[in-house]
Amino acid sequence: MDDRVILRVGAKILIPFIMLYALYVQFHGDYGPGGGFQAGVIFAAAFVLYALIFGLGNAVKVLPPKAVYVCGALGVTIYIAVGYLSLVMGGEFLNYGVLAHDPAHGQHYGIMGVELGVLITVFGVMVALFYAFAGRRRLDP
Amino acid sequence: MSEVVDVVLLILLAVTGIAVIRMRNLFAAVMLTGIYSLVSAGLFTVMDAVDVAFTEAAVGAGISTVLMLGTLALVDYKEREPTRAPILPLFVVLVTGGILLYGTSEIPPFGAADNPAHRTIARHYLEESEEEIHIPNVVTSVLASYRGYDTMGETAVIFAAMVGVLLLLSRGPLPRRVFHDGKWITVRPRTTRADLESSLRDGEEGAAEVGTESGDGGADQGGARG
User: Do B162 and A69 touch (CB under 8 A)?
Assistant: First the structure.
């Protein structure tokens, strides 16, 4: 582990940029390709890269499995909450037009909200899947 | 020019696919499936489906490959030689492939203006979404707003996938509180066969697994999980 200097230093430099790129993909999804799903996967990839190079133990210290599971559920909750919010504000379920005075702004807020939900769920699920696979130890016969 | 790119990418795709089938070394096969996804992403880009290409590159070439490598770390990395002649599988594959090829003859030509996909609501999305949603990327408008209900279902499916995988694969890194014999006990996760064997050696109380509050739940839990 300790002798792979290039790998460790390279990953250390890369990981912040991967996270930043995920956020770019998230918030630029309205104007170009991308959105919550892709951003969530890229954000998860940053943690997966960290776990692959610095070991699962360190990754679990940075991001405990419990937090990951909470993320997986939290995103769906946010998505549905946006739906109910538009219901409470007087529109149909997931009709974002009513979320602000100007329907265009409402659409913007709504899409931002649900995309955030998608991001959090996809991020949580991807890391949880990785933990589930990587956390199992080989049972040698 | 676009045709040349198409042909090159499709040839690469076919070569990679055949290589995956022929490969007995599963490690190389996993890396080749990653390359297969990346080439597919290139094809999607040529077909102007950048969002799909993006997802394919991130999920297919990225996360899937890592998960497959994680699985390979648990199993043998050499595929076993088949014990029987693969006559029946070959027959099934040929028949299925034949049906699929027959089906493609009915598919409307790619990009034709009078395709069913373009005749109904897609026209409305392309022409009105800028006015209605005020977002330039029509894909995002359709996914998040027009079809927000579908995307909610998809997000829930992803969440359900996590729950399913955790139920199947994870013995849980967290200690769990379970209600057993009228009282709450703490059940610690068990990860290795050594733990299992030591707890079996220790007897039916299952001391390695069950927390301090009670020793009763151990045997049941051990049976269910072992």
Answer: yes
